[in-house]
Amino acid sequence: MTSRDAQGDAPRKVTELPLGIAPTVILVEPQLAENIGMTARAMANFGLSDLRLVNPKNGWPKKGVREAASGATHVLDRATLFGSVAEAIADCHYVLATTARERGQMKRVFSPDDAMAELVAREGQRTAVMFGRERVGLTNDEVSLADAIVTFPVSPDFPSLNLAQAVLLVGYAWRQASGRAHLPFSGELLSPPATREALVALFGNLEAALDTAGFYPPEKRDIIARNMRDMLHRMSLTEQDVRTFRGALRALTRKGT
Amino acid sequence: MTSRDAQGDAPRKVTELPLGIAPTVILVEPQLAENIGMTARAMANFGLSDLRLVNPKNGWPKKGVREAASGATHVLDRATLFGSVAEAIADCHYVLATTARERGQMKRVFSPDDAMAELVAREGQRTAVMFGRERVGLTNDEVSLADAIVTFPVSPDFPSLNLAQAVLLVGYAWRQASGRAHLPFSGELLSPPATREALVALFGNLEAALDTAGFYPPEKRDIIARNMRDMLHRMSLTEQDVRTFRGALRALTRKGT
Fold first, then answer.
1. Closest chain A residue to B37 measured between Cα atoms?
2. Which residues contact B61 (CB under 8 A, 6 or more apart)?
3. Residue from the list A151, A172, A183 with its beta carbon closest to the beta carbon of B109
4. φ, ψ dihedrals at B52, nearest 5°
5. N or C: which end of chain B has fewer CB within 10 A?
6. Which value, to the nearest 10 degrees, does the dihedral of the CA atoms of residues A124, A126, A127, A128 take?
7. Three-class SS string for chain A?
8. What angle do CA A207, A215, A226 make, to 5 degrees?
9. A to B CB pairs, distance under 8 Å
10. What are the tens digits of pLDDT across the range A23-66?
11. Which residues in B32-53 are b (16+ Cβ under 10 Å) and which e?
12. Least CA distance to A149: which residue of chain B?
């Protein structure tokens, strides 16, 4: 199977794309350059790269699409154009259709998470997710070419999801289902937790300073001191935190005497 | 605490908003009308409604923001304006800051799912998620006003997430964590599954028709018939499906004889 490269270059075999990796995204008759560009960006955010366009309205390429992609031009540059859904899905082994409403079709209906788990389980197969036109979605005939349906758990009060937002949710769910959802950084402490010896020394410094300052009503001294130890425990202080805290306490004590 | 209504109306108490429901979304110095409108739309998609804007760049209201909200004007209409992050979070009990990169701050770092589970657990508290400027995000000082950090499991090759897309992911994760992620329709079969009696009768019709048509090589008849029964089983036919299938078979048999 060949298709026209979306940038107007010579036909190329789309079967050269790697199998069993991220799903292909198929936009059927998308209208707005912003949505196509934002789709490319959303795909790139989660590691999807195969974008197929079926008859974009008012031609292709569209003015403003690269700006909307905000740097995800590698997705736009390899996007491919097709004349029909049947051609766009020809080399796929499993195809999902996104729809916002019941179509009376007796297909399995997946949440994004379950849908992406199904795709991830199809290792070695080329999988695709189809998204319909901005206003009217996919036709029932187009939906009937899909193996199953994906729909989104939107609020019934405002279910209208933007096209690129729908693609983003599929990309996000795929990244999670495929075990690639690593955070770019962790909350690992930059300094090790304080030893209890350091913490107990801090308690001692603080309580001595407050004794000197006449802070405690004598009959409540012990209960207030224990409450403050609880507050300090809740801070999960690191070694560095304890050093900072003791330094601040020394400065305050100098100032106060 | 009072704040100016984003539409320029008289001050109103923001503490009138319901507690313990969806998190507040705070955009800090957002620049583009499209992003603010799309944020409102994304919030409405997942049932979030309290939008706060800290010093939107180039003033407020912005031209084009209502169009970008695509009908989610109820979120824009009740949006509130603030002069600083400290004021915007004043009545909140727990605040998350979204950041795309490590800030050297010793805070917990959550994925969207874990972050929203944490918010949902804080029933009765007003919670908020802060999002920074389009290009540079939140300042370290602003991050230091948050209890913890949320970051997104984006591809390291293309981590730049659009502002409204980030809000969408938070809304989606909140809807899932809060147990509200119901799909708008299910894949329940519109007709009950076929009884095995109906299915076995279909096998009989099909095999008789193929016998008559001379389809089977005699030595392979039984194995081919069993393989076709397997194919039919994989279709999980309903009562209606069996009726349709048997009708089609009758039509083909009439045509063929």
1. A162
2. B6, B7, B8, B76
3. A183
4. -125, 135
5. C
6. 160
7. CEEEECCCCCCEEHHHCCCCCCCEEEEECCCCHHHHHHHHHHHHHCCCCCEEEECCCCCCCCCCHHHHHCCCHHHHHCCEEECCHHHHCCCCCEEEEECCCCCCCCCCEECHHHHHHHHHHCCCCCEEEEECECCCECCHHHHCCCCEEECCCCCCCCCCCCHHHHHHHHHHHHHHHCCCCCCCCCCCCCCCECCHHHHHHHHHHHHHHHHHHCCCCHHHHHHHHHHHHHHHHHCCCEHHHHHHHHHHHHHHHHHHC
8. 45
9. 152
10. 999 999 999 999 999 999 999 999 999 999 999 999 999 999 99
11. bbbbbbbbbbbbbbbbbbbbbb
12. B187
Q: Can you give the pLDDT at residue B4?
A: 45
User: Domain coordinates of chain B in residue numbers?
Assistant: 2-177, 196-256
Helix axes B163-177 and B33-45, enclosed angle (nearest 10): 10
Class of domain A2-177: alpha beta
- List of chain A residues whose C-beta atoms are within 8 Å of the C-beta of residue B76: none
Q: What are phi and psi of B51, to 5 degrees?
A: -105, 130
Binary contact (A157, B189; C-beta < 8 A): no
**ipTM score assigned to the predicted complex:** 0.88
Nearest CA-CA distance, residue A112 and chain B, Å:
10
Contact (CB<8Å) B42/A100: no
Q: Could A169 and B165 be called an inter-chain contact, meaning their C-beta atoms sit closer than 8 Å?
A: no
> Min CA distance, B193 vs chain A (Å)?
11
Contacts of A194 in chain B (CB under 8 A): none
Q: Model confidence over B206-234: pLDDT tens digits?
A: 999 999 999 999 999 999 999 999 999 99
Alpha-carbon distance A241 to A192, whole Å? 10
Chain A interface test: which of B38, B135, B168 (most A C-beta within 10 Å): B168
Nearest residue of B to residue A176, measured between CA atoms: B153
Task: Produce one character per residue of A141-172: b if its CB has 16 or more CB atoms within 10 Å, e if not.
Answer: ebbebbbbbbbbbbbeebeebbbbbbbbbbbb
- Amino acid identity, residue B242? V
Closest chain B residue to the Cα of A190, Cα to Cα: B106
